[in-house]
Amino acid sequence: MHKIAASPLISVIIPTYNRAGTLRRAMDSVLRQTHPNLELVVVDDGSEDATGEIVSGISDPRVTVLAQPHQGVAAARNTGISAASGEYIALLDSDDTWEPDKLTAQLAFTRNGGWEITQTEEVWIRNGRRVNPGMRHRKPSGWIFAPSLELCLVSPSSVLISRACWEAAGPFDSRLVACEDYDLWLRCALRYPVGLVPRKLVTRYAGHPDQLSARIIGLDLYRIMSLCTLLCTEELSPEQRSLAEYQLGLKGRRYVQGCLKRAKDEEARRIVNMASRAGVDLFDPVSG
């Protein structure tokens, strides 16, 4: 294990699980940053491929490698952030990359604007080809809580958050197999406006079979779980509560109807009960 650099300004966290084919590319994009005062914490979340060989060959003193049994991306990010000491935290997925001046440009934007959380625009590569994000995926700026209820509008690989933001809104909910980022960004957006650097400083790769969103069916289940927790644990204004309840009702009814079509009555009842505890009445899944 390499020693973490003393008092880095930015801590970069890369969680990885069986990504030997892309991890070094992601790490190199961090180590080539023009911003000098950083540390890189790589968390090997129980990989069973050649990940261990790749990280053991890194001798850069800015790099720390942590290993843990497989617990999921949320727990891996939490582990890395707990071990880090930077004033700012940047996340990078192990299949994505950064432009060399990503941190320099984003840090200047963040500090000049007094932001606690910012993200950048991205280039999207799907199945080896560049694609344009749809209108619904366009990143807003400012107080983005309301539009973020429908779907995740903050990209982990593009985000830079202050330690104060993390301590107020974190950690990632490790109970969520997916949509853990949707969940955290909602809590951040309740507390802070989100800034957007108008430059494509991240390349985001998608379409490969090991991508989490490609392996999880029914992602709305985890958004439903997140919304239920939000409604039960956060202090919301009447308008924010109304918006969150509306999205929970919309997603919850759609999910329950899908369960009933597949004769999954117990799962439907579980979601109805979960929503009810959050103050949203879906409907009785068996009697109608």
Number of helices: 11
Largest sheet: 9 strands, mixed
Total E-strand runs: 9
Secondary structural class: alpha/beta
Average residue pLDDT: 93
- Using the alpha-carbon principal axes, give the shape: globular
N-to-C SSE string, H for helix and E for strand: EHEHEHEEHEEHEHHEHHHH
The helix fraction, in percent, is: 40-55%
Catalogue the unreliable spans: 1-5
Strand content: 15-25%
Roughly how many Å is the radius of gyration? 19 Å
Cα-to-Cα separation, first versus last residue: 58 Å
Your description of this structure?
The chain is α/β, with parallel strands linked by helices and 288 residues long. Helix content is 40%, strand content 19%. It contains eleven helices and nine strands. A hairpin with a 2-residue loop joins strand 6 (117-126) and strand 7 (129-131). It is globular. It starts with 9 loop residues before the first strand and ends in an 11-residue tail after the last helix.
What's a quick, concise take on this entry?
The chain is 40% helix and 19% strand. The protein has 288 residues and is of the alpha/beta class.
Can you give keywords for this protein?
288 residues, alpha/beta, nine-stranded mixed sheet, 11 helices, 19% strand, globular, disordered N terminus
SSE diagram, text form:
Layout: E1 10-16, H1 23-31, E2 38-45, H2 51-56, E3 63-68, H3 73-83, E4 88-91, E5 97-98, H4 102-113, E6 117-126, E7 129-131, H5 145-148, E8 160-162, H6 163-169, H7 180-191, E9 195-206, H8 212-215, H9 220-233, H10 238-261, H11 265-277
Parallel strand pairs: 1-2, 1-4, 2-3, 6-9
Antiparallel strand pairs: 4-8, 5-9, 6-7, 6-8
